[in-house]
Amino acid sequence: MPYSTTPVVPPGRMSAQPQPTLVAGDLVLRPWTPEDWPVVVAAHADPAIRYWHTRALTEQAEAAEWIAQRSGAWAEETGAEWVVEDESGVVGRVAVYHLDLHDGVGEIGYWVLPEARGRGVAARAAAAGIDWAFGELGIERVQLEHSALNTASCRVAQRLDMSLEGVLRAHLLHFDGRHDAHLHGRLAPGVRPVDHADPNSVT
């Protein structure tokens, strides 16, 4: 069934070109490669990452599949995922995923390895991802969902100027049960919601 709206981002804009490498100060965001599987295993051995992201990857084959899915998301135009590095090596991961290019909406996600926490890595890397999503890709809204108990993610959202828009009741399933989720959002520069009803619209 055809849409009555024009795509915000034309199909093919992502897949027609290679995924870029981004730079944010001392941080470099590069695409994942198959050789990164030890990082994925090490990350998911961290109790905090396993808890908030509800994944338990313990073997090379599982990590390789995880990386392949992330690489495939670019070709499918459903997400862009990066390894985050600094001069010490890999420090985390950031993603603009759950992309709907027709509607021009995506979601930001991230994790940071234990040894790199407390240095603003998540906020700086996520800011680079959001700048790319708004500037290079051209979507119009980025949102963030996280457990209402994850106060660290709330602080990251504040640093990213992502407004807290509401609470989604029992929205996320974690190992210990269902969590309420905070929904944060940020609009691209110049984007404003319609503030009046169309008298010709069908109700």
Describe the fold and architecture.
- The chain is of the alpha+beta class and 203 residues long.
- The protein has a domain at 22-140: Gcn5-related N-acetyltransferase (GNAT) (Aminopeptidase, 3-Layer(aba) Sandwich).
- The chain contains 5 helices and 8 strands.
- The protein has helices at 37-44, 47-53, 60-76, 121-137, 151-159; strands at 22-24, 27-31, 80-86, 89-100, 105-112, 141-147, 163-174, 177-187.
- It has an 8-stranded mixed sheet with strand order 1-2-3-4-5-6-8-7, sandwiched between helices.
- Helix 1 (37-44) crosses helix 3 (60-76).
- The longest helix has 17 residues, at 60-76.
- The protein is globular.
Strand order of the largest sheet: 1-2-3-4-5-6-8-7
Q: How are helices and strands ordered from N to C?
A: EEHHHEEEHEHEE
User: Could you tell me the radius of gyration in angstroms?
Assistant: 18 Å
State the secondary-structure class.
alpha+beta
> Approximately how much beta-strand content do the residues carry?
25-35%
In whole angstroms, how far apart are the ends?
A: 20 Å
The shape is globular
Output mean pLDDT. 93
Looking at how many chains there are and whether they match, the oligomeric state comes to single chain
* CATH fold field value of one domain: Aminopeptidase
Number of helices: 5
CATH superfamily of one domain: Gcn5-related N-acetyltransferase (GNAT)
Unreliable parts: none
Q: Approximately how much helix is present in the residues?
A: 25-40%
Extended strand count: 8
In this structure, how is the largest beta sheet organized? 8 strands, mixed
CATH class categorisation of one domain: Alpha Beta
